[in-house]
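[User] I wish I could look at a protein chain and see how it folds. I have put the entry right below:
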Amino acid sequence: MKTITSPTQDGMQPTRKFQSLKTKAEGNRFFVYVLELVILYVLVFATVSVFAQAPATASKVPGKLEFVKETIVFNSGKVYLNWVAKENAEDCIYVIERSSDGKEFEPVGLKEGIGSPLELLYSWVDTKPLTGTSQYRIKQIDNEGSLVAEANARSVSSPDNPLYIDKNSRLVQVK
């Protein structure tokens, strides 16, 4: 395309045709800029949406939770759980679960686990245990809320009536 210029005091001045083309080109630059911003917004939004909805594919399979020592005892109408965590255990939350059939467990308690270079003793008491045989298990949850490990279920039996009469002394005792 040929540009026609005419002399001015400062030098060369573009003609009206050139000014018209320059204005259209500036308008097109604005349009291209807006179009680029819209495309960038759509790409960012789509990427964020995909990653926000995508399930975690690198999930770890929970391991077996092992303690130095674990006891479960029924006494005086309550169930006492005690466990000693291994040394150098990480900060976590222990979830205590209970089941009457050994298949479906419900959470009944929480205990905060403290990271320590020493073995630590944890205790939890079920003040309203189920009648008959119940199973308890402990799960370890990390600070992000994902399951780290799960202990084997342990059984404990509670009598229908925790009180009985000793025939020899005729005293009421707690089983």
